[in-house]
Amino acid sequence: MLLAKDQLAALLEQLSKGSARLYVPARVDATTRFALFEPGIKTAFHLVNTTLPPKDLLFPQTQKMYRYGFDEQGIPYIDPVHDDDEVIAFGLRPCDMASIDCMDAVFLTKGYEDEFYAPRRKRLLTVVIGCTAPAQTCFCDSMAGDASTAPTADIQLNETADGSAYAVLANTPKGEAALTDWSGFLSDAKAPELLHAECSLKVSMEGIKQKLDTMYEHPLWERIAKKCVTCGACTYVCPTCHCFDISQENRMKEGERFRSWDSCMFSSYTLMAGDHNPRADKMPRVRQRFLHKLCFFEDRYGRSLCVGCGRCVEKCPVALDITELIDEIGAL
Amino acid sequence: MSALTIEHGCARATEQLVPVICKLVDISTETSDVKAFRVQTLDGQRPFDCSPGQTAMLSVIPYGECMFCVSAQGEDYLEFTVKRVGYVTEQLHALTLGDTVGLRGPYGNWFPTEGLKGKDVLFVGGGIGLAPLRALLTYLLDHRESYGRIDLVYSGSTRDDLLFLDDIFHVWPKQPDVHMHTSVYRESADWSGEVSYTAPYLEKLAFSPEGRVAVLCGGPSLFRTCLASLLKLGFDPGSIITTLEMRMKCGIGKCGRCNVGSKYICLDGPVFTMAELEDLPWSAD
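ok -> structure tokens follow
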């Protein structure tokens, strides 16, 4: 099936009127991110990647978990906060979808299905648009991904070679069902040749994990960490960084406990009572981030935690580049 | 000796992230900065079943949550032994009988009570490190016939820093084949026992590793020195068990901060053998 490009705006308009909240890549203030489709939105489908990743659709930067307080009789209460909105993420990139796969592994496996993530995930419809012109910092196809395909996405769109339309493919029953809402905008025409993209930035992951397994004490980490300013930008823009803090805010006799994004780049992250801190210094924190991405996560979940989106490469203020690190390890 | 098998990845919590409201039904002062709190549900039940070594997230609801090991349990309560060292514990210490707290858990794995059967058990702990050991020690005493000789090498900075005085001086020494070895680091007029750091005392007592498992819990320096002493005495790393601490927020292996390599202490631990830790990027510091 084909979706003519000149039908995209009308389709989005229609979807935005449905019961699900529709999120699309957009320019908001001074940045780009997935934003609610509403009148006046500055959509940004031309971007390869939004500056901020779509992870907040599933894992909000701040998420209320429950309210607590005392009722009129002085009886304490705790009321969990759950929202039940259906959400469509329209215009994800294949690397974004891979990052959702990583988050699913964290939040939905190993004994506990996270009670705040799982319902959001179940109600999320993922619509991925395959890339046609990866950025200079993109390297998804070196990280077991592919710039054009997203096999776990509910619906996948790929641009036709003449640039006039998207070929539409439902990968899941959920995507299949969702396409009924699109029917007025689709044509049955068979897709002509599709654009397939390849990243120009390449790294070789061959043997990297095996080397890193034995590199915990390697002098390289001191040198790598030297220029890091521990600003945490890499973890903020990373689509797979999922660490969170739990905190609370009180007003009079009521309050709410919430979780919010945290970063392993900050020393307070592991600070324990009695002032003991296993990662007080910068080097162990930088090492932790890279080993978690390229080594520990794979041991635990069977895949890398880096999807090659290039956001950290783009945003690091001191040009600490994970692809250069991988090359350097490969050359050892 | 056959290697001990420790369960890992034990997702047994009855509540993931949202606590149940409980009340304090007993508060006892152990030392100047340690109190033990007995916690019960509002309808008078034990909040949940747990095994020795498991942990739970206890909250002073408006102030925050902290992870503690369950130091004892009864028919209708769980007990937490808490040192006042920070913001939340300060608030916890200020609570009085009948006050409400939040509780969620139990998290993590437990000491290998099956694998220890028929073995002699040497407990080594310092200060507040006795809290998790006590949960196991009490379990062994409740099933006394299944386990061999029990030794506890316990120390505090001073006489006033020793916990569970009734247990260590009166209750436990009277149990069959239980041997107490208590020391303090600094002498005082009211102390006539051993004055020694834990590790040299442990070496002086010269325990044989034959048929014996060591269970170790204490701060970084006690841990490091006593581990070295146990290895010197000939203990195999597979026969040394410990329980680790890390900062924790979620307790269910998601929030990320308690990882050691590919393991999460809250979910895969906190109980490990030293042989297992040798394979992880971990150090006592």
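The mean pLDDT of chain A is 95.
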